[in-house]
């Protein structure tokens, strides 16, 4: 799709994200008070159903019903190196864990969160000095999320960039907008404290770019690209697996194109895949489920390998027993949240250089459940965007 250059004029604030168009202004706090506005955004065309397939608690993943330019300011990044070196990288290590002896009726992790509503009040770590915080969250319908704790989380996190997926807002959003063609379908929106150099809506490398409306927003900044993404689901019965494979190839091509521009990469969102068996509670019974087929997992592996990218959360946490039971999605059905039956579908993927030099932490906000069937994921990096 053709790139859209934003007219947004954004200002940084410790308490809110502000975005202005020529004749309108909104804040994240205002979004929490009204269900008809959003900020830096594109809207997609994907509808999520809360049907988990067969009436069995192992079938715990929801399915979709459909489921520039700017010169690279590399010098600015180099000037930061000395200052960045002084920022200590946080190695995120989970607390000591004990496996449950009660089978699938309780979480694997002895200290797992099992709340079904958003905590309020909610206190989250502040962004370290000299760093940028980015959060990504599938809100499963913004209008609904607004009533169940969206504002509580957004205010507590105070991120520099917010990427939301599946907002399902039909009205054109205030800034970077790719209007949806169908009602009640998902969308991608991004809220930023710092104005990007350029914005691209959709997936230009796809053979049918029109079908990627609302699936992808790419923001260009002096040091990096941030790609907010809602990857198509293969659907119940894998009826759209072929389309998913086409998407993966196009996504890989787009990431390679962006890397060729000489900037670092941050790819985030609901990527609709559990890459490894550790990324879901019941891998053995879900090998034919959308999100955990060998085709989807292999497609994701190829993207990581050929574009030399890193799944930041898994890279930091490892794949040992102590890392089990950490998920970003819990179906509303079968008491999956209480039982700890989840899937890790939401990611922050970066190029290897960024992961090595700039990533401070990559975490799942496991406690922030209730406003959606997903919880947010957060990336903190050194330096400016």
Explain what this protein looks like in three dimensions:
One of its GO terms (molecular function) is double-stranded DNA 3'-5' DNA exonuclease activity. Residues 17-33 have a biased composition (Polar residues). Its EC number is 3.1.-.-. Residues 1-77 are annotated as: Disordered. Residues 1-16, 34-46 have a biased composition (Low complexity). Helix 5 (241-259) runs parallel beside helix 6 (294-306). The chain is of the alpha+beta class. The protein has a single domain (38-382), classed as Deoxyribonuclease I, Chain A (4-Layer Sandwich). The two termini are 24 Å apart. Strands 4-7-6-5-15-14 form a 6-stranded mixed sheet. The protein has a 6-stranded mixed sheet with strand order 8-9-10-11-13-12. A 3-stranded antiparallel sheet has the order 1-2-3. It has helices at residues 28-33, 74-85, 142-146, 150-157, 241-259, 294-306, 312-317, 336-339, 352-357; strands spanning 9-11, 18-20, 25-27, 41-42, 131-138, 161-165, 188-192, 198-201, 216-220, 224-230, 264-270, 309-311, 346-351, 359-364, 377-382. Strand 2 and strand 3 form a beta hairpin. It has 9 helices and 15 strands.
Descriptors:
single chain, 385 residues, alpha+beta, Deoxyribonuclease I, Chain A, 6-stranded mixed β-sheet, 19% strand, disordered N terminus
Q: How many alpha or pi helices?
A: 9
Structural class by helix and strand composition: alpha+beta
- State mean pLDDT (0 to 100 scale): 79
Reported CATH architecture: 4-Layer Sandwich
Spatial sequence of strands, sheet with the most strands: 4-7-6-5-15-14
Task: Give the total of beta strands.
Answer: 15
Basic shape:
globular
Number of spatially distinct domains: 1
Indicate the radius of gyration in whole angstroms.
Answer: 19 Å
Unreliable stretches: 1-77, 89-102, 174-181
| SSE run | EEEHEHEHHEEEEEHEHEHHEHEE
Instruction: Report the top-level CATH class.
Output: Alpha Beta
* Relative helix content: 10-25%
Assembly state here?
Answer: single chain
Largest sheet: number of strands, sense, barrel closure: 6 strands, mixed
In the CATH hierarchy, the third-tier topology is known as: Deoxyribonuclease I, Chain A
- The CATH superfamily is Endonuclease/exonuclease/phosphatase
Strand content: 15-25%
* Through-space gap between termini: 24 Å
InterPro entries: AP_endonuc_1, AP_endonuclease_F1_BS, Endo/exonu/phosph_ase_sf, Endo/exonuclease/phosphatase
Cofactor: Mg(2+); Mn(2+)
Pfam family, one: Exo_endo_phos
EC number: 3.1.-.-
């Amino acid at each position: 799709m053709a790139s859209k250059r934003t007219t947004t004029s954004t200002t940084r604030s410790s308490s809110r994200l502000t975005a202005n168009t020529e004749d309108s202004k909104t804040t994240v706090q205002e979004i929490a008070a009204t269900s008809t506005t959003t900020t830096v955004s594109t809207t997609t065309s994907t509808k999520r159903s809360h049907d988990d397939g067969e009436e069995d608690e192992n079938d715990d993943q929801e399915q979709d019903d459909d489921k520039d330019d700017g010169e690279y300011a590399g010098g600015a990044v180099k000037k930061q190196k000395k200052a960045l070196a002084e920022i200590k990288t946080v190695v995120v290590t989970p607390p000591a864990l004990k496996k449950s002896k009660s089978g699938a009726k309780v979480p694997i992790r002895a200290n797992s969160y099992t709340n079904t509503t958003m905590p309020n009040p909610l206190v989250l770590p502040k962004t370290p000095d000299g760093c940028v915080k980015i959060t990504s969250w599938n809100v499963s319908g913004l209008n609904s999320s607004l009533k169940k704790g969206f504002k509580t989380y957004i205010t507590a996190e105070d991120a520099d960039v917010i990427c939301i997926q599946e907002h399902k807002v039909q009205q054109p959003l205030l800034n970077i907008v790719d209007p949806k063609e169908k009602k009640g379908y998902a969308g991608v929106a991004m809220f930023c404290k710092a104005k990007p150099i350029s914005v691209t809506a959709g997936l230009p490398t796809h053979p049918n770019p029109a079908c990627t409306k609302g699936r992808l927003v790419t923001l260009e900044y002096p040091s990096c690209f941030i790609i907010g993404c809602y990857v198509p689901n293969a659907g119940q019965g894998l009826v759209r697996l072929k389309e998913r494979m086409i998407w993966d190839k196009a996504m890989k091509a787009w990431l390679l194109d962006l890397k060729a521009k000489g900037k670092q990469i941050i790819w985030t969102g609901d990527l609709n895949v559990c890459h490894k068996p550790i990324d879901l509670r019941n891998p053995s019974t879900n090998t034919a489920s959308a999100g955990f087929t060998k085709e989807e997992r292999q497609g994701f592996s190829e993207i990581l390998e050929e574009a030399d990218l890193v799944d930041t959360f898994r890279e930091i946490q490892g794949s040992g027993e102590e890392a089990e039971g950490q998920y970003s999605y819990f179906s509303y059905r079968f008491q999956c949240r209480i039982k700890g039956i989840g899937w890790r579908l939401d990611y922050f993927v970066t190029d290897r250089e960024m992961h090595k030099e700039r990533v401070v932490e990559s975490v799942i906000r496991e406690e922030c459940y209730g406003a959606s069937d997903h919880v947010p994921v957060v990336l903190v990096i050194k330096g400016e965007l």
